[in-house]
Amino acid sequence: MENIRNFVIIAHIDSGKSTLADRMLEITGTVEARSMRPQYLDKLDLERERGITIKMAPVRMLWHPDRGITRTDTQNNAESDLLYEDLTYKIRGAAFEVRKRLGLGHKESVYRNALTQELSNQGLQYEAEKNVGIFYDGKKVGSYQPDFIVGNKVIVELKALPEIGRPQTEQLWSYLKGSEYKLALLVNFGSKDLEIKRVVYDTARLPRPSASIQRDSAEVEYILNLIDTPGHSDFSYEVSRALNAVEGAILLIDGTKGIQAQTLSNLRAARRAGLTIVGAVNKTDLDLPQLPRIIKSAADLLGVNEDEIFRISAKTGHGVAQLLEEVIKKVPPPRTYADSTQNNAEKSPRESASSLRQSAMPSKALTFDSLYDDHKGILAFVRAFDGEFKAGDEVTFLASGAKFKIKEVGYFVPETKASQKIGMGEIGYVATGLKEPAMVKIGDTLLARTNADLPAKVSAGNLGGQARTDAEKSQRVSASGQRESANLALPGYQEVAPVVFISFYPDGATKFEDLKKGLERLRLTDAALSFEPDANEALGRGMKVGFLGQLHFEIAASRLKDEFNLEFLTSFPSIAYRVLDNGIKRTIKQPQDFPEKPEKVWQPMIKVEILVPEKYLSQVLGLKNVFDLEVKEIENLGENLLISGRMPLAELIRDFDDRMKSVSAGFASFIYELDGEELADVEKLEIVVVGDVVAALTRIVQKKDLEHEGRATVERLKELLPKEQFSQALQAKAAGRIIARETIPAMKKALGDFGKNGGDRTRKMKLWKKQQRGKERLQSMARVELSPEVFREILKK
């Protein structure tokens, strides 16, 4: 296991984590250049559409320490940089900029003209189509005309081919061999994406390394298991699960914004997990006057010297190879379960016996994620802490009790690839063959079947040495088995508590069972999702779903639509309150279950930390009264100010994030965690349509906002509901009193032109009275059904 390194990339959202992962895949050769695409590890269409990482993504990479460096360079100086490193990274940056602005599909001449302008924009000296002499035995025998020579050091050759292969590379290598230049970049604006190959001719001019050096180089190969993680606070549970499966972390800081809120949150979580942390500042290819200050802030945050903070560009690849070398150098090899159960020397004989039994149970893995496959059943993403797992092994999940025979094991490269086994310390997947989502629980321990059966076989009677009755032995065996099960379990994850509850109701062709099945499948890849049955008079049966925040809800709803083709309506978001009613305390999740006049109400509170540049401080503090934010402390943190405060959880779902981003021009960020509860001044707001309460529109509102919320809702309903033969009273009610009302008048039937052209007006009056009597009969039987379209409009944010 000494050559294995397991690590994660953690950062605030939009810091370049996925782009850094792309460069690592490219540098290690895990993904071929012609197959490379931006955000390669982001598999969901929604991730690419929104430009954010939603799901953690594991990948296995192989890395040679001398990869990308000539053998002679490695032999003379193992710490040496790539040949013309800074210059080539700038050239790559220019090529990526052209690709970004022009796209693909143009002729080679178009890209040549664009790159000419971009090289000038970046201040690079170059010569276009210069004649380069080709020499043989010191005599010039011909010439070669590359597209560019940059800095009088690097040849740049452009192509616009579907892909570049060995012939193009070898041709360029031959040109280098006959000229005075050592390095060339073969840049291909291909059919799928930009492809850049680095061609070096250097080793043929120098003495050939000894065979022993070549053998040493060939023998050193590291297995790098990377997990790319989300950056938004709503998906912090994804980060926490990844941290339990690794030994190290790269803390990535955006060089344009510096330390942000989720940077702090992820760092604290990594430290709690006992990980080795390597710091890096990204986007250093840009002209950043604040970069020295950000690097100093990062060094202070991590408690290291400034030269230990890596300056990288995930876009161009600058510094990424050196960052990988630092991961290999600093991050320790995988720990085993035995590592955390040492120091048995001073234990009692019974405890020592238990430890010995543990050492005899090697096959143990932690489940940190899962995925459903139509053919292989549920794929469990695992980290093997002890022993190994192979296809055909009989195993069990300790918590769920599910027993099965492994159908297949393999690695993520980054697509799933079958292998003979998953060894100790490695990260991979296990094809369970199970079809029931409840059987696979995130955080569960996977054990070899013989090990899992062991607790039932452990006899405490064997340890005592004295006779006992059958009843005594049975009790001791049961207690021993429970202790063994607890000892076998790997440290998993705490169950996450949802903070926002929203009801989902089937719509269109979607049925209740379709919605339930979709949520069960979604929970396989979203362990924080919780749900229970719900019902509504107007919308029928549905599911009450718990989320970790507003973005978590939006992503889950989009995935249900895109991945499972479901149609549904959603209710207003709500939170859980604790109420005292008739001397009984209970937790209320459904607004319609909220008592009319409770004695006391407690609401959940959150501790919030806001990171904001000093120039936006007053604007952010202006939100205090709007969102009941109590500011506790303001302190300096590098380039920003850190505001610590406390506020009701209910205020968080009232557009707090959007308003804060708006007043700070997008520079402010925040993190929060639950922080107890406080008495709340809230009431239940009900909407009454023609005498009937519409349960789906009921919600819990602060008393100060009751009239505004109630009036806005009935006014909106008046716009949406069609006229009927009778008048429709729309009312907002709270604590038994009407706080707002609107009326939709009844339709009037045209009664002709009585009274005109000599007609008898008394006839018209008769018809009016008859119509009025009919409307009164209709009014007494009136009942209005709100259509799904009306609900959809009224529930829009």
Can you describe this structure in just a few lines?
It contains 23 helices and 38 strands. By secondary structure, it is of the alpha+beta class. Residues 68-81, 203-219, 340-359 and 451-483 have low confidence and may be disordered.
Structure description:
The structure is a single chain. The protein is of the alpha+beta class and 797 residues long. The chain has six domains: 4-64 and 221-330, P-loop containing nucleotide triphosphate hydrolases (Rossmann fold), CATH 3.40.50; 84-201, Lambda Exonuclease, Chain A, CATH 3.90.320; 354-488, Translation factors (Elongation Factor Tu (Ef-tu), domain 3, Beta Barrel); 508-571, Alpha-Beta Plaits (2-Layer Sandwich), CATH 3.30.70.870; 578-680, Alpha-Beta Plaits (2-Layer Sandwich); 683-794, 2-Layer Sandwich (Alpha-Beta Plaits), CATH 3.30.70.2570. Helix content is 31%, strand content 29%. It is built from 23 helices and 38 strands. The strands form eight sheets. An eight-stranded antiparallel sheet has the order 18-17-23-14-15-22-19-20. The chain has a six-stranded mixed sheet with strand order 2-10-1-11-12-13, with helices on both faces. A hairpin with a 3-residue loop joins strand 6 and strand 7 (154-159). Helix 13 (449-457) packs antiparallel against helix 15. The chain is globular and about 120 Å long. Pfam families: EFG_C (PF00679), GTP_EFTU (PF00009), LepA_C (PF06421), PDDEXK_3 (PF13366).
